[in-house]
Request: fold
Amino acid sequence: MTQQERAAAAAPATVGLTRRHLQIAAFAAVQALPIIALSPVTPHIAAWSPPVYAAVAGLQTLFVFAARRMVGLRWAASLTAVITAVLVGPFNAVGWLIAVPLVVAGASFDLMLRLLSRSTSPSAVQHVLTGAVVGTALFGISLPVMSAEHLMPGLLLATWAARIVASAAGSWLAARIVSGLARAGVR
Reply:
């Protein structure tokens, strides 16, 4: 087999992978928009009410989750989260630290989809399980930065529940977005 034949045989796989990476970058760019738009108010929401912030913060991972479902690569959500963090770092109140919750959410989502990969289509149970894992991971990394007056059992439980519900809703919405894109002919 000549060099040209080997290059031709490898080209379709490379083109497919390149297209997937471009899709990941596009999802990251779209995800950056709501994060940047909400960045002036999210610190105030977090200081005022951590459960409300946890619900609003669910918007920050919606397209990270959608990228994983659309592209299908094992670590697509994590890669989308990293690219999103690079894009929004200069425009966010926490700067580059935004990468921590984004990557934790992306990696948790990637892991859950990997563990639940036997099923062909996402079910309500899968969305709830994914929401529980992602929400718990995000709650765990947000706990050390919560102010002392917010460290009351009721408020902590409400914040944890809001993280889980927001993550489960994000998983469900991401599946709907990908389904809508597929119906529209986007592949």
In short: Helices lie at 3-38, 42-48, 50-56, 62-71, 76-88, 99-115, 124-142, 153-183. Residues 108 and 133 are 7 Å apart (CA to CA). The chain has a mean pLDDT of 89.
